[in-house]
Amino acid sequence: MNFPSSVKIVEVGPRDGLQNEKQPIAVADKVALVNALSNAGLKFIEAGSFVNPKWVPQMAGSEEVFAGIARKAGVSYAALTPNMVGFERAIAAGADEVAIFAAASEAFSQKNINCSIEESIERFAPILTAARAQNIPVRGYVSCIAGCPYEGDIAPSKVAEVSDILFQAGCYEISLGDTIGTGTPANIERVIELTNKKVPLEKLALHAHDTYGQAIANIYRAFQMGVSVFDSSVAGLGGCPYAKGASGNVATEDVIYLLNGLGIAHGVDLQAVITAGKNICASLGRVSQSKVARALSSEKPGNCT
């Protein structure tokens, strides 16, 4: 089987992971997490979101996070930017790249950002123009590629349509987000097949959530098809504050374990990521959702069958 020889892991824990936590999160804890992840070898880290803290209070203090991290050469520190105000804040804070987002579901777009899909993309036009002028890379997210909490199943053709619009508008990479984790290898395959007719395969990423326990299977199928960029979140942190019941992103530890088993290069230290996950979970008062981290950190098992 012709797997890609290496994989790019986009670590979204400090942004997509933490944004769904219930309690306020100290800037120092966020900074420590970003530093631990970069020290583990991750080269692409979403370090924060420049959204109004009224809507996502856990992302308050993103300026302080970017100011406090120990930047490493060769690491791209990214920020989610929902509008021009957010973009300007991100650039002033020193973000290396920014991300914008649209949905493949009209209902989700209305619930998430109070506008239609078409209106959401129009809102991002000034960001793309400004980013080009300043040579800032822009990554595009497409949410709800398999299912929507309000509409149900989503047509793969709609995912391809929205992905094409973002790519043609100037996004260097399109991350396909299974926001509520309903995807299975069969429909993820169909989404990738149709989207690849519009967007080159090397410009696609998969952003898998593990609500139904399908994330690793979906990643493996995408990998078989030639996708070589995967988003993941340390300790499986995350979810979606606008999608009821959506559990966390696929755990970075679990993705690394899969890649290690396949002998695929990724450049990340698994044990260091496990430690980073353990530390942020201790700060949050919760347990890691990574099956690999829990297995490798557990005591010796007793008798079992």
Concise account of the structure shown:
The chain has helices at residues 13-17, 27-39, 62-68, 84-93, 106-113, 117-134, 156-169, 185-196, 215-224, 252-262, 270-284, 291-297; strands spanning 8-11, 44-49, 76-80, 97-103, 138-143, 147-148, 152-153, 173-178, 204-208, 229-232. The longest helix has 18 residues, at 117-134.
Major sheet, described briefly? 8 strands, parallel, barrel
CATH architecture type: Alpha-Beta Barrel
Summed up, the domain count is: 1
Question: Structural class, from secondary structure content?
Answer: alpha/beta
CATH hierarchy class name: Alpha Beta
**CATH superfamily, please?**
Aldolase class I
Quote the average pLDDT: 92
Give the N-terminus to C-terminus distance in angstroms.
34 Å
Please give the share of residues in helix.
40-55%
**Uncertain segments of ≥5 residues (pLDDT<50)?**
none
Kindly state the number of beta strands: 10
Based on the structure, what is the oligomeric state of the protein chains?
single chain
| Principal-axes shape call | globular
For the largest sheet, list the strands in their spatial order.
Answer: 1-2-3-4-5-8-9-10
CATH topology: TIM Barrel
Residues in β-strands, percent = 15-25%
Order of helices and strands: EHHEHEHEHHEEEHEHEHEHHH
Number of helices, where a helix is a run of at least 4 consecutive DSSP H or I residues: 12
Radius of gyration, whole Å: 18 Å
